[in-house]
Amino acid sequence: MAALISRVGKKLRRIIQRPGSVELTRYEALLPAVEKLEPELEKLSDEELTERAGKLRETLKDTAFGDDQLIEVCALGREAAKRALGERAFDVQVLGTMGLLTKHVVQMETGEGKTLAGALAAAGYAIRGKRVHVVTVNDYLARRDAEWMGPVYALLGVSVGWVEPSHSREERREAYAKDVTYGAVAEIGFDVLRDRLVTKVDDLVQPDPEVAIVDEADSVLVDEARVPLVMAGSIDRSDADEEVAKIVRRLRLNLHYETDSEGRNAWLTDAGSSVVAKSLGIEVDDLFNEQASDRLAAVNVALHAHALLTRDVDYLVRDGKVQLINAARGRVAELQRWPDGLQAAVEAKEQVTATDRGEILDSITVQALLARYPEVAGMTGTAVAVAEQLREFYELEVAVIPPNTPNIREDLEDRIFASPSQKLRAIEEEIRTVHETGRPILVGTQDVAESEELAEKLAKVDLECVVLNARNDAEEAAIIAEAGKKGAVTVSTQMAGRGTDIRLGGTDGADRDEVVELGGLHVIGTARYPSSRLDGQLRGRSGRQGDPGSAIFFASLNDELVLSNAPDVPEGIVDDEETGEIKDAAALRQINHAQRVAEGVDLEIHRNTWRYTRLIERQRRDLLVHRDKVLRTAYAAEVLEKAHPEKFGELKEKLDDQDKLEQMCREVLLFHIDQLWSDHLAYLTDVRESIHLRALARETPLDEFHRAAIPEFHKIIGEADTRAAKTLEEAELTDEGIDLGDAGVRRANTTWTYLVHDNPFDSDFEQTIKKVRSMIKRK
């Protein structure tokens, strides 16, 4: 009867496609067989264990995992971990490994051993003959996990490496040649982009993608899915208009300019336009003439930098440089920058030295990067909340792995206040009261500015705390590791992807028993995050592996989350006259509603962005097939010989070396292909920026985008051949063949990447329409 009920339940879940509904019964049934192999494997020497894994590799090569193979892989992995790390994988970790080996996103709570489960799965795929990339959220975790799990891989006969920013091309090629390669998602993406621009096969560093196991899968696959990794080539110093920056600095909100409720756009009022025009020495009408379009664009970008980007929230100024902050992780986004003059505008605003500007050579979104892999799996502590997106964008299902020990953390009801200042006073009192008991406290803030403000207030009442934010993220592992010590108070920005457990009693566990007796780690959220997953990730830092603990969130009806997403607070909500605390259930409903709106907006932006980038990625894929043909064959020489046989004959005579001849022709044609693709990306950016005008004309923006993009793309290959032929025709030949520099075939040496909040519908026009609609609804 039980088996029948299980089968019916499984079919029902498939029909309704409920998130997080992967059936674990198949895997749970294999656990006894995995354990049964344990005594047999324990008798083997290390060499015999490695040999047995090698025999399984021969059996499994390029075949799918059956139950018998899953049992063998997991049993071997458990034994290898026990010998190499002194850790016997729990049954839940084995379940997680099986889920990963069958291409699911497994949800495992914080502290349940995702790193080991991921390593055993990576080894399993490698034993199956696949190259595996374990994709992490940062470079620190990539190196740490590769080195930490290295002995386990060695016992299973699997080689492992990692890539990091300091690695040379040769070191990268060596790392990617391993069976398993760890790397931050950005680092792997940059290598893909660099490989797309090589002119010699020997310069390629990455093999063809086969398997990706994504750590912190919700963060990488959802939060950063639409973030383009951009390869840009240096041209010269940015030409930000410092005069405009000084003018905009004097403008005042609601007098000279206004912003939308979502904080995405700012625009000049009539008074603001008058001030700007007068400061520039022109008439107001002239400011909006076509001849002044460049100056008006500079004003708009400077206004965006002034009004919408906040120091210590969106970016830091450190060592004389503007550094972006990754909002999802609360840390500096290394090597990232804003596009379209915005970086220069922020630098002018902060009066720091301008960085080089450049042209986009190529780009790829994180979503498209991972779509290259035929097999993808992932692991995270909070997957169910984004199961819909994982299914929609990646065709991945979520497998919820139960904790090894039941979670006994006490999740307290949110405390809600009328104003942020009243909320802050209550947070200070909560910290003081709990600290007096000796319990360790972790406080999660929204941004750098808030974390430092809170730390200053605590210092005034003699409450010492350690601050973890984007300013000191290099020290994060050591800070987090000690956050569980008796009496510790740690204030941190977003905890997602920190990669280090908080052990009660600290790293040495000296105070563990006492901290357990006191009630464990107490987590305080200073506001609800825009995503319930981020709330869950903060809560999940307490109560690891059955430890006691508690978590509470404080909120205000004037928090940014509410003001931006649900500002129409119901009337009749009353707060306490002295404390400002609100007990009315309607307040909590309003905050929950605001969070759902924020999540819905983010999902819709993801969908809209993907509708556009999908075509671009398809075009890039098609062009790369042609580019690879040029890279690996004599196609370029054949094109040039056909176009100008006499000049080609002269070139051939000068070089007197067929390989050199083909390579020179190849470099000429590849240069023009790459330049035309760069031009195409710039063209598509212009099309998207004007897409709201198509909507005004009652045309479907996406259809119009396709109508503009497709014909232009089909011109690239023919135009590249034509330009390459012209280069040969006009080039002066020397004894070395063609002087590529003199012929204009010059590639950028300096490259970088930057972060773009990429919403194709986010225009001044669209925001104005939203405002009008909301006004009509209120009436």
Automatic annotation (TrEMBL):
Keywords: ATP-binding, Cell membrane, Cytoplasm, Membrane, Nucleotide-binding, Protein transport, Translocase, Translocation, Transport. ATP binds at residues 93, 111-115, 501. Its main location: membrane. InterPro entries: Helicase_ATP-bd, Helicase_C-like, P-loop_NTPase, SecA, SecA_Actinobact-type, SecA_CS, SecA_DEAD, SecA_motor_DEAD. Transmembrane segments: none annotated. It catalyses: ATP + H2O + cellular proteinSide 1 = ADP + phosphate + cellular proteinSide 2. Residues 9-586 form the SecA family profile domain. Residues 419-586 form the Helicase C-terminal domain. The keyword Membrane applies. It holds the Pfam family SecA_SW. SUPFAM superfamilies: Helical scaffold and wing domains of SecA, P-loop containing nucleoside triphosphate hydrolases, Pre-protein crosslinking domain of SecA. Its EC number is 7.4.2.8. It comes from the Bacteria. NCBIfam families: SecA2_Mycobac. HAMAP family: SecA. This is Protein translocase subunit SecA. It comes from Amycolatopsis plumensis. The gene is secA2.
